Amino acid sequence: MAPIDPHLFVIFGATGDLTKRKLLPALYHLMQEAGVAEQCYILGVARSEWSDDDFRAEARDALADEELGHWCDEHLFYQSIGSNSQRYDALRDRVEALEAAHDLPGNRVFYLSLPPAVYGDTVEAIGEVGLNASDGWTRVVIEKPFGHDLASAQQLNERIHRHFSEDEIYRIDHYLGKETVQNLLAFRFGNAIFESLWNRDRIERVEVTVAEPLGVGTRAGYYDDAGHLRDMVQNHLTQLFTLVAMEPPATFGADAIRGEKVKVLRATRAIDKSQVVFGQYDAGTVADEEVPAYRAEDGVPDDSDTETFVALPLYVDNWRWQGVPFYLRTGKRLPEKRTQIAVHFRCAPVSIFETETGGACDVNPNVLVITLQPNEGFDLHFEVKKPGDGMQLATQRLDFRYKDAFGPIPDAYSTLIRDIITGDQTLFVHSDEVEASWRLYTPLLAADLPVHTYPAGSWGPEAVAQLLPRWTNGAVPASEGAAA
Question: Catalytic one among 7, 75, 228, 236?
């Protein structure tokens, strides 16, 4: 692993849920590595008039570890910024005082755990008081969504680039920090048996599914304005799509990998609006629990037409993938939690097997199922002869589970925060990638597409059948059984 330099990790939005639920646990986990704790000091920043002790108490509550007292007292600090931009002068003074007190060389991480609407203003305030310039390195971390369409993403890129260069900007998508997502690269490019089959001659279609049984929860204020296309498709599902479709990079480095992902997006055909299905969940039953319709959720307008489900095909117009559909499907209030990539290989052109009555024996296609969560692993579905007289085929599978081979998998934020601190941008999104993705989806935002209702607990609207009939009842290969 790359060494960790002494630095100050500044969290904007330190009183928020993400800091308590993800960032502090990930940082504390990182601190447990030998020699790391002495290198990292954390400064929480928010509007609340908290003290250092208030922030430390919040950290102890988040981590639920009785041994935290000394670590919190030595490494956690807090600075209120109020609603007055002039308070950034006080923030600069506090940063410089902490660096002097702990003999830090000026290395700084600015993590924006904030509402997207204030990303640009916050970065400009950091730059205006000179916090982006020091004797060490500086890095700014921005959560998704990065913009809400192409124009806003370009504007945000321009504002941030005034104060930070591209190699200092870390656009974070926690999906890319998952070990199973990273392993897509190892799986494809480390196993010649699969890479040699990874093309239009052998693959009939690819399905990317991200299903959530949960509803909108407490996010109605943000979600109803954003919708599922912005919240999930433009970032998470598109990242998975590019990792499956990209060409082999020249090296396993950030620039090479991100460059190949951008090539995929630039080669992707404009989306046919007639093949896009938007849906919104109605009342129904999920996991034996009666749940309300989206419009009945707290904070959602009674007449909202925000989509909570999206299904669409993408086509990459290059030599490897010409004519192969990549079906993306994601939604809320679906039957189960599942993030999965199913690669369907082409069937043999002619079946040589016969049934007992003399007819052709059906042969199911081979399917490679990559499960990213839960129960992370791989399943390869294949055909065998059933014992007994006659030629009867049955689908069986070979499977691999990460937990069986390696035990617990590190949290995605732990992986990504280490990469931020060590300066590895491989798992972070480049500005070109953000803009290329928005070019695909922005036309859909202005298309006024119909939003079909679907019962909570189902696999989406009936209209999905026009894309892929096998999806009508959620029939995708499950990791627990044979191919559907």
Answer: 236
Question: What pLDDT, in 10s, does the model give residues 141-153?
Answer: 998 888 889 999 9
pLDDT digits (tens, 9 = 90+) for 241-298: 999 999 988 887 778 888 999 999 999 999 999 999 999 999 999 988 999 999 999 9
Does the pTM surpass 0.85? The reply is: yes
What percentage of the chain carries pLDDT values higher than 70? 90
Structure tokens at 249: 């990079």
458 closest CA partner among 446, 443, 474, 479:
474
The neighbouring-strand residues paired with 172 are 143
Mean pLDDT of 390-411: 80
- Find out whether 329 and 471 touch, Cβ atoms under 8 Å: yes
Q: Which residues contact 299 (CB under 8 A, 6 or more apart)?
A: 216, 220, 221, 224
| Ramachandran assignment for 240, one of left (phi > 0), alpha (psi -120 to 50 degrees), beta (any other) | alpha
Give per-residue burial for 363-391: e unless 16+ CB within 10 Å, then b.
ebbbbbbbbbbeebbbbbbbbeeeeeeee
User: Can you state the angle between helices 24-31 and 52-63, rounded to 10 degrees?
Assistant: 80
Asked if residues 314 and 235 have their Cβ atoms less than 8 Å apart, the reply is: no
Nearest to 442 by CA among 77, 145, 14: 145
Active site residue 161: no
Q: CA-to-CA distance for 238 and 87, rounded, in angstroms?
A: 39
pLDDT tens, residue by residue, 321-334: 999 999 999 999 99
H/E run at residue 78: strand 76-80
Q: What angle do CA 114, 116, 119 make, to 5 degrees?
A: 75
Map residue 338 onto helix, strand or coil. strand
Instruction: Assign 3-class secondary structure to 199-266.
Output: CCCCEEEEEEEEECCCCCCCCHHHHHHHHHHHHHHHHHHHHHHHHHHCCCCCCCCHHHHHHHHHHHHH
Cis omega (within 30 of 0) for bond into 408: no
What tokens appear for 8 in the block? Answer: 């100050």
CA angle in degrees (0–180, nearest 5) for 79-81-82 = 130
Position 34 confidence tier, pLDDT thresholds 50, 70, 90:
low
Could you report how far apart the first and last alpha carbons of the chain are, in Å?
42
Structure token digits, residue 303: 């007449």
Q: Are 26 and 59 in contact (CB under 8 A)?
A: no
